[in-house]
Write a structure and sequence with these properties.
Largest sheet: 8 strands, mixed
Number of domains: 2
Order of helices and strands: HHEEHEEHEEEEEEEHEHEHEEH
Bound molecules: 2,5-anhydro-1,6-di-O-phosphono-D-mannitol, magnesium ion
CATH topology of the largest domain: Fructose-1,6-Bisphosphatase, Chain A, domain 1
CATH class of the largest domain: Alpha Beta
Shape: globular
Radius of gyration: 19 Å
Mean pLDDT: 92
Structural class: alpha+beta
Strand content: 15-25%
Number of strands: 15
Helix content: 25-40%
Amino acid sequence: MKPGKKIITLDEFTIEQTRLFSKATGGLSTLLRDIGLASKVINEKVNKAGLVDIIGAQGTENVQGEQQMKLDVYADDIMIRVLKTSVDCAGIASEENDDFIAYEDEYSCNAKYVVLFDPLDGSSNIDVNASIGTIFSIYRRVSPVGTPVVEADFLQSGRKLMAAGYVIYGSSTMMVYGTKLGVNGFTLDSSIGEFCLSHKDMQVPKDGKIYSVNQGNTAKYEQGLKDYLTYCMEDNEDKKALTHRYIGSMVADMHRTLIKGGIFFYPADRNNATGKLRLQYECNPMAFLAEMAGGKSSDGEKSILDIEPTELHQRVPVFIGSENMMDKALSFIS
Ligand code: AHM
Ligand code: MG
């Protein structure tokens, strides 16, 4: 930050944005503050993962039949507890829980918003110290205020998102969140314990040089996708061979894609007709951020944001990234 430049905290920024809307009650900024608080607690634990004996499979399986790491469970618990005490959250749904949770106290029943989250995405990277993150989405509930939330509150398409974002626990800890007003990034200054505006009005570059996919799955892809990968790897009349980068942690791969441009995809393959990543916890929030920052998203046919969810843990094929790279990829696969 340049000397003399005013530090803008996450709180100050969201309150300022609220003022732009005469009807806004400030509920969204309260929720972002609460998510920020939960993520600071998670961040502390993530930073200590190598020091304390907390990493490793806990032995339980989540709804998708995957092993949960202890830190996932911890992060899930923190998010659930912090949002339960938030006056603006009526209920949550988490990638780690089979069903949504309705907070049934009087304050929560009167709240307008529900929050969906993946408490610690990319958790297989914990024990190798690679970046991981918390992904979140905020919707306005469709059930009547004053009653407990219902499943339909959580099965809304990405187009209906009020806000979405992620916190990346990386070489520095950052929160990136977007609304229809745009996407902004805040870096955690641990000396003051505040997320400070560091990446104002983020825009996905129209073009990029990086493709990001688990290329080890190529043999299982359909022919159009194989052809696209060949296109990526070769010099052509319009470009040099692209660079391949894949961390295997969606938050980290998407963070790079948002900043540097590129394309991230997790397609369907022979064994997984709907791909691997979850619509409501991973694909929608990331697609929303990319689209609000000028990028594109698709499931191969339409924008991720136009998919009407039918179940909480639904998986979809996903392509997200720079506009021109997306157009090129879709020309191979559609
Ligand atoms: P998780 O929610 O169990 O952590 O799995 C999601 C992660 C994403 O972060 C990442 O993009 C993907 O799984 C990597 O999968 P793969 O190892 O099959 O490439
Ligand atoms: Mg995940």
